[in-house]
Amino acid sequence: MAATGEPILEVRDLVKHFPLNQGIIMRKQIGAIKAVDGVSFDLRRGETLGIVGESGCGKSTLAKLLMALERPTSGSVKINGREIAQARGGELKRVRRNIQMVMQDPYTSLNPRMTVGDIIGEPYEIHQEVAPKGDRRRKVQELLEVVGLNPDHINRYPHQFSGGQRQRIGIARGLALQPEIIVCDEPVSALDVSIQAQVINLLERLQNEFDLAYIFIAHDLSVVRHISDRVGVMYLGKMVELGKDTEIYDRPAHPYTQALLSAVPVPDPDGRERRERIILQGDPPSPANPPSGCRFRTRCWKAQEICAEQEPLLQIRPGTAHASACHFAETHDVVHV
Amino acid sequence: MKKTSTSVLPAGGALGDEPLLAVDDLHVEFVTRQGVVKAVNGVSYSLNPGETLAVLGESGSGKSVTAQAIMGILDMPPARIPRGEVRFRGTDLLRLPEDARSQVRGQRVAMIFQDALSALNPVFTVGSQIGEMFRVHRGASRRDAEKKAVELMDRVRIPGARQRVHDYPHQFSGGMRQRIMIAMSIALDPEVLIADEPTTALDVTVQAQIMELLAELQRESNMGLILITHDLGVVADVADKIAVMYGGRIVENALVHDIYRAPAHPYTKGLLDSIPRVDQKGQELYAIKGMPPNLLAMPSGCAFHPRCPYRQDNCVTEAPPLYEIGPTRSSACHYWREVLDGSHG
Amino acid sequence: MSDTLAPAARRARHGKPARPPKPPRAASLWSDAWHDLRRRPLFISSAVLIGIFLIMSVFPWLFTSVDPFDAASCQLADARKGMSGAHWFGTDNLGCDVYARTIYGARNSIVVGVTTTVVTALVGGLLGLVAGFKGGAVDTLFSRVTEIFFAIPSILGALLILAVFRTGNVWTVMLALAVLTWPMTFRIMRAAVITAKSQDYVVAARALGASAPRLMFRHILPNAIAPVIVVATINLGGFIAAEAGLSFLGVGLRSPDISWGLMISDARERFLEAPGPLLFPALFLSLTVLAFIMLGDAVRDALDPKLR
Question: ABC transmembrane type-1 domain spans which residues (chain C) (predicted)?
Fold first, then answer.
């Protein structure tokens, strides 16, 4: 996982607001769900950036924006210097070859009425220039072999495979166009525990083999730690902390990151009575009406007046080596995930 | 709260040698068009007051079916129970007539589910759904039932219970809905609470809240808790003892500290080894090979043998019994000694 | 199948295989479905039945030497006779041979049933596919239009349409039936498309850059067509019966045209004395409808890989 210097994905001030409308004939916008609200980061070749956060933090919307499945309200997403956020038609299609995705649920992400050969071969039919027609079937079989499936099963249908095998099919489809970036949106959370490690290993092997860069979105913090070079923590549409994996896990500076890490159950019962736990009160506020200033202040034990008045920016703060968005950032080793 | 049950069941109190709840050699089958699916194959476990038993397994291991059999909420047919006992305070629930059984269900043995949204009725207020427990089982008036509902919502720490008692399920967040489910399940002070993946659908910070709440309620009332889960982290956090299920059987029974220190079954060992550890960064994770068994075509002998690194010839032909390997431990592996030694090393 | 990685996979490089595998026959949903259909007894028996009825409607003289359009073939003296060697199905009120009329009636009935079914399925299905897929203004427009059609009582609507044309023949009857029933197919298709559209595999195809026609015809249509097939085959019998109803009201086909519907409505008054002239065309009608319903079931199952 040698990440070389040049960024291949640059995200700047990315914003996605979903309008809330009222009325049928006279449609009037009465507000907006601020799903992603000013997110910036870089991704370098061969690198894995983990994105963690709880439901409603905007990580899935972020994935859709990166894949150009949703158009951002503002901000930019550049792949190899080419803007994808505003691209259309043939330009968009060309950029897409460089960024592909692996979805969460292997049971719904494969068309039940297409053979595995057609599913993995579809990228070649859409992007005809990538592989000549006569070559496609052979390429599909190679891909099956690359992800550890039997190439002779090319004519089978998805329901004839187990969950783990289906996820391998989804990964093969994502690899077909030889992208440089793969967005993995919770790629193992729908799989049985005993299968998850197999798929994680496969993703890591493919990364080494093809020099892929991953955006790895997951809620399982130990899996994210294992696979990521850097980790971003999201809360209510904002990136609240971003740093190397060791920085985030061993020296978290943002109170939310600390609470999140301390809430993860540790698979070791020894000393469980003495373990420090920060249990947050209540639920995250609605992204339609986020708190002023710092969005985490309503659940934060450090909150002061300034937190309501001034929004903390994601920047490197005194005493820490990585960026965090808290006026009172202070590193604190909570727990080893 | 006073118990008004006049059932054939012994009332609460001292138990003697008999555990609070004991599942004994339970078998559950489903008759399907493709054949008979043996979902549970001779499962035994027991639970004492104040104890937390974690039942660990992946999808299809039979962990939820066992719980449904205890509750008596299996659809029969297609399900049938050819053999086995579920003893609650010494009385076999499976042999009870339905009216006696329904006195146990929900009142003395209660259950909460993974998906709280679909378990709550969307057209009634949460207050009336919690209060209904008192109206049906205790003959409480509408006013009293609502008062009880508010008390319970306070007890499960739903903020502003008095105002929110008239709200509908969709107006609550996922974590709050699970609290409402818990409020309903503890309404009648059950002695056993079965929680089937209670936090799987929730975020980690909310999961921590719910697990803390369950532990507190358990301390207050000394109820026995059966926690069904696939999450090794949650188990390590709260369980006293563990039953690991695979392919409809219990493959390992142990106290929580023993099993994490040194598993005695290759499947348990594989699961623990495949958890990513900090010092394994950049290395390949240990992965159990192959995939979970198909219940319609179970492997011969030991169901785990196609995936097992300890396999010998007799594993293919001979199903291992649950060997007693200590006063509180058992393992369904012919080579449990080797597994244990390997775990230490 | 082994879930572990083959050593060859480790050697394989993108685009440059260590060992090129031999590609087997390419399977697709439609070729697999056809392959599967040819083995289904349900499909074979329904196809044979439909084949016989189609031959009957195109070449009726292969089945009978009597020409029912020839006035001389009917002898009033023979009216309402039972089954005999000369008249297999007996004779009707006017002494005409019921067997020959049933054979010759197949053409109009089957043409009305099949054509109307195909037209409504195509028009309603296609519009439903577009409306469900595009959503927004297109969907609103189409949906409002269908609601207007739903508001018209169907008998009244058919009477009106046929009154405008003044002539009741096969074409006007089909037009009236199709105009009044396509909204139902539209509704069913639209609902199925909206369900299919939000599935993850459609999102995955969009992420690959798939065009709208590819999304519609390759991903959504095969997953949304089953309910339309079922309703279409059930409707087919309804159309044949509706043609009879319109004929009975005097706005559909008229004598000397022959159709099963006409025969049934003509024979109703004397049914208790002479059941044959009603029962035999009704039997043929039921067999036709049954054959098409069986065909629809077989096709629907064949298009679902899980049921193969």
Answer: 106-296
